[in-house]
Queue: 2 jobs
Job 1
Amino acid sequence: MKKSIQGQTLILSITEGLTANKIASYNEELDKIAPTFSEFNELLLDLEQTNNIDSTGVTFVIGLFKKAKALGLNFCVIGANSDVQSLFKLMKLDQFFEMKNQ
Amino acid sequence: MHDMEKMIIYESKVDSSFQSVHDTVDEIMQHFSTNFNTMGTKTLFKINFLLRELLNNAVEHGNQFHPDKQVVCRILRENDFIILEVIDEGLGIESDLNNLDYDVDTEDIILRERNRGLQLLKEMSHTINISGNQIKVHLALNEEDSL
């Protein structure tokens, strides 16, 4: 997971799959990054490089959304391919956060 | 598409870890892109996702990550269906998926922490059959899949 900052926006880029074999290490990284969330007003999750996903990955995204929401940050998924976007829509997650193509 | 016999496309045994599941699904998807390169991307995405759900569930809940236990993963083709078959070495479950109510759209239900995999299996598949420690999922091929 790569972290970058643009003004008041924190961007987290997933550089591998959002799959069960990776989620534990992502959560460890997130534990280190999460205390800085309150310094931003927006959190973007960049899924441009994510082709593989499972329900553990979906739960990770939801957890990230909940953390951002609890601190009043706007949360948005960017760069997700059409299949991942369709999956999130199937889960009705588009009711809670926006998805942009970049 | 013509009527055809049930044909095994892929079969292997998977060690009981999430990493083995990932490696196996990667290998299977490579096999599909090499040998079935006219299969549509949406169908390939579904196969990728469903296999991960079935195998993750088998290694975690069935085999409980036991290093001496394995999961059988079999993929078959029968007429207009791809059949994903997964057998673990656990005690098996009795589950009636029709009794699971996922139609309530409250925020708590949509953003819940558990049971998301079962819901997605149900929504993406044509049929699901669970018998003891074996689960079989039928996935309908569609017009984009000119196999």
Job 2
Amino acid sequence: MAAPKIIVVGGGLAGLAAVIKIAEAGGTVDLFSIVPVKRSHSVCAQGGINAAKNLKGEGDTTFKHFDDTIYGGDFLANQTPVKAMCEAAPGIIDLLDRMGVPFNRTPEGLLDFRRFGGTLYHRTAFAGATTGQQLLYALDEQVRRHESEGRVNKYEGWEFLSAVLDSKGVARGITALNLRTMELRSFQADAIILATGGVGAIFGKSTNSVVCTGSAQSAIFQQGAYYANGEFIQVHPTAIPGEDKLRLMSESARGEGGRVWVPRTVGDKRPVRQIPESERFYFLEEWYPKYGNLVPRDIATRAIHKVVYELHMGIDSQPMVYLDLTHIDRATLDHKLGGILEIYEKFVGVDPHEEPMKIFPGMHYTMGGLWVDFDQMTNIPGIFAAGECEYQYHGANRLGANSLVSCIFGGFRSGPNALAYAKNLSAAEGDGGHAAEIQRQTEINNRLLTNDGNENPFKLWRELGDTMSKHATVVRYNKGLKLADEKIVELQERFKKVNLSDKSQWANTSFAFTRQLGNMLELARVIVGGAALRDESRGAHYKPDFPDRNDEQFLKTTKASFTGQPSGPRFEFEDVDIQHIKPRPRRYDAAK
Amino acid sequence: MADKTVTLEIKRQASPDAPAVWERFEIPWRSGMNITSALMEIAANPVTADGKATTPVTYDSNCLEEICGSCAMRINGKARMACSALVENFEQPIKVEPLSKFPLVRDLQVDRSVLFENLKRVKAWVPVDGTYDLGSGPRVFPQQQEANYPLSNCISCTCCMEVCPQFNEDTGFVGAATIAQVKLFNNHPTGKVFKEERLRALAGDGGVQECGFAQNCVEVCPKQIPLTNAISDVSRDVLVQKVKDFVRS
């Protein structure tokens, strides 16, 4: 039998990690990415990557990392894979260090670590405040090396459209669209790894990059893959509100001592730095004395919402609070946080060394994603998933600096597992379903190009984003979720009347976007439907009408499947693996 | 402020062979607006200032926070990232054009893959033995980290190449970004195993000798990478390497 062929879709940290493992094992990989892989969304990660290296004499252990992650995720994550990730993390940091990531150092030349949310240990390795960029570059460089040695073929500027499934429902390849020539093609593979990132675009404005639409996940969901825990959406407490997107202001700002506050007097007119300490309301420090500004993200986000919408104490009555670094000396700030301070200064025009930043929560991350087994394989044989696009490592709320480690760990697992699967795969019958899938995709494309309605896809997208941000982020009510679902169904109807203002067959970005939008709408129903069913509050999912966690009924993974019916996705629940740590109440006002 | 608007003139070209035309757009002004959000606004309402229906503008963008390197273009004649270009800082009409030194794809989108090819040529990576667990990496003192980190911030936007008078088909010059990466990897305790190969790759035509010291690169770099320092350091190393190779031969 010929050497197995693996396709990896997505060139962020998870995808590149998978590629490296396969290439190293002697396999060949076709790597598909919408953008040149070096421009993937992983570059936006700022604060760092967690590993219990215990280099600060605190007695940190991988078990404590595991416990913090499970507790931070409100016990929703399956524990066995999380345990394995935390145990592998120190080795991953060492490897990245060997690859040349310019991590910050101690005077002795060792890796420096800082604190992050949801832990009391210095567990986060970092490269300034551009850690994701530095990690992605290190993996990109290794992949370039394998590429120059002929083990990797890059298809940059190709967008994944669907999986090719044979008559038995086994994956035999993919279809993809060349974003320049608009050519539709199918590609043969014995196994496929999706590493296609987050879903921020479904919420209109988020901290995510433009390509993070969830389109690929949605496409294979519609082909039969389960989507798990879709309702768990992380809203990051500190983002810069923006016209076009919400720019992340890393948790590392608080890890290095940044403090969140509002004036105690509503409408205080004094210049901000003249407001004395005693007249500042450091609400996180007052409400959560043990963790202070470093409570997990869901907790901090809800606290800011409470200050703004219940106590009406937002700065100048606007939805904003201060994130203050001005008490920290300039050299330390530049050395440890330079990258993010530059972003604030460039986009807001105010120097955060001199004046507290004004921030507000913004949609940031999906804990949910494609359902996978402990080997990273979806329920479609031959399709694996790794990184943010799968659901496995973060439960109901992700801890800061755990995403980079989960991406790399998931990528490292999925690569060899895909290779092992592919080696045992029997040959496809006939053409493995390629011709039929090309036919199906051609029909979808033709419908889009020949529609003669009057809807503009970019306007539909804005309406989707407004609805999702309003009803399916920080605070959720069943009434609002119902409205949101009805709105999505309306948008799906109007989507059938989309009229493309550009029907050309060369670098047609609105055509590609419109295909993504159709997929976003399907996934939006999964997010909203899962949230509606889960009548409890757990991690990032908060319903004031059901304020407590309800383990009896909802210590379960939500699994959505596609029906193609107007009633929307079908939902079922699966037990969570809790064999290592017994679930206990989650609270951050005291040490756990 | 309801009727305050922003005027943009965008150079359009439907394909590499099609003629270039300028289109003028007037779009509603919003506080904090940048060039990429203006382009998104046009996509939602693709009509020119004189009421003519047109197509959404094709351009590269991704992170919108100046870290992915996608959205480089010329704005009022200057190469820069469109996402960090706040419209209030520009004289109107704001003229938006594609980078001029790279093959045009469509509208504001160009093909910058030459940079990634150059990075292959100079082996811009650390040759690790494998990804299995081999223990800690080499010790690196903070001073070294502080010297290397800025070089590692290069976002591959190619602005330094666009503004370089020497970067053209005649010279085949690799450009400042690649040279800075050579310095970065030659500085690394493991990466320097390829030091001689990298220097030889920059020794001939199109190598570091093509630099004309215009210093445009260092001025335009959105990440303030010390590019001219990198070029001087690498030039010196290339020279030393040439002498060594000459003596050996």
